[in-house]
């Protein structure tokens, strides 16, 4: 997994590539930890994300909870297989997925 | 130099009763026989000794003081009890007398490389060794059987060594047991059941790690077979054969070495492995080679051979071999099965040719015909077999999250052989991760342990079955209630999604606790 962060004022784009699983999810969580301070627009760019497991979904859900209180969050460029996972878990109803 | 050893052994017979009446006299007699043999090894033959009192024991102690290398042999059960109670069995080597057993008229229930097994009464069987001087073999088999039992392989351990005519035998308790060969011969409709049980035990053997140095390395043996062939094969073929065996990596997993259906017994409801003297470590291709020989190879020219050996016919042997190999590899793909069979046959023919030549097979027309046939098959195989390695359908790893990538990679290689759409691949990956992480986090906490992951791919319909086995605490991850996925982000619990996803995306997911193992099975049609 690789994480790239681009900050533009109070907007943050996080591009995650590779596999977001039990082994790598804690890394994403740590990386997000401090950088969410003062952010009002968070975008996850999943164009290069190949795989997401429940550990990754947990990070997304906890991040969504944080962003609900300070701004907005959206997920872009997720592939079909990942979108399907968002569908089954009901994430499509509680997150903005483009 | 003072450390020159005198290798003389003096044997002295003790007879009747030794007590305070004759102890002094006995001592005098013993010392007289030992005179002039300083440093001799002393063997006290107690075959005719009926009783020994403490006065007699003191005599032995005094003799031992002057002659530390002292053995008492042929000890009757009564005398042994005295020696055991007084701690003599720990101070010196005490060998019990051998009980004499006759196998006349007894049913033959098994036959292995080194001996034949007879039922001597309802509860007991005796394995009579071919080699008349078999005490070392018996000791070896006892030790490896103990090792196997400790490592979790169901087997019988002999509790007594007996004399059978001029040979030695070891006695085992084996109640109501029958060999799988008997079942196949008498109840052919149970073929599939036999295959399943036979292969399950085979996999268990092959997933058992043996501490280094405890068992011989089968690769070394196979190398010696290949070297033997140098005089009987064209140079190029012989070189290739040797290179093929050399390229097999060292493997510390157990192999039985003579795994055929006379050596697998059903005792009540338990499947037992017997005839443990060929136990070794090595790559499973060596095991498959000996299986091929037992069921097909030895009978390939003269089809009746197997009838005398296993009690069923050649067609049954062939069918059993193919079905077992298919189940072992976890595939019904004929091409893949044949590929692995060919690798096994390379070693199988090598072994049979060597064996036959050493048994003067070249001196008879029948023997020559057989050797010629095996040789032509071997040469044809050496034309196209380029490695003896093959991928098995299961791996065993420590249940640790760090091993997740290895598990995922293993599952993916098996999915590569079939058309697996990316969506299904992702779903399978998710389910595999969830189950493995569950085992890693909970099965052995706070200790450590292993998990076995098995992948089976079937055709028509194309489906994949993934089984997880662990020996941890019984735990059914499916029993957890599903999360409510209609709740808002704020109301939602962060965890619990994984198992839910696995349930939603797999066609079937089931759990059972059996034989001390958690068994979780995922099924997905592709």
Explain this structure.
The complex is a heterodimer of chains A (98) and B (526). Chain A is an alpha/beta fold and 98 residues long. Helices cover 42% and strands 34% of the residues of chain A. Chain A contains four helices and six strands, in the order ββαββαβααβ. Chain A has helices spanning 25-35, 54-70, 80-88, 91-94; strands spanning 2-8, 11-20, 41-45, 49-52, 72-76, 96-97. In chain A, strand 2, helix 1 and strand 3 form a beta-alpha-beta unit. In chain A, helix 1 packs parallel to helix 2 (54-70). The model of chain A has no long low-confidence stretch (mean pLDDT 93). Chain B has helices spanning 23-34, 54-66, 77-85, 88-91, 135-150, 180-186, 191-206, 218-228, 235-246, 284-295, 305-310, 314-329, 334-358, 365-384, 404-416, 422-443, 497-505, and strands at 9-18, 41-52, 70-75, 93-96, 99-100, 107-111, 115-119, 124-129, 160-164, 167-173, 177-179, 254-255, 264-267, 270-273, 280-281, 394-398, 450-458, 463-470, 508-514, 517-525. In chain B, the strands form five sheets. Chain B has a six-stranded mixed sheet, covered by helices on one side. In chain B, strand 2, helix 2 (54-66) and strand 3 (70-75) form a beta-alpha-beta unit. Chains A and B meet through helix 2 and helix 3 of A and helix 15, helix 16 and helix 17 of B.
List keywords for this structure.
heterodimer, A: 98 residues, alpha/beta, Transcription Regulator spoIIAA, six-stranded mixed beta sheet, 6 strands, 42% helix, 34% strand, B: 526 residues, alpha+beta, Phosphorylase Kinase, domain 1, Aminoglycoside 3'-phosphotransferase, Chain: A, domain 2, 4 domains, five-stranded antiparallel beta sheet, 17 helices, 22% strand, globular
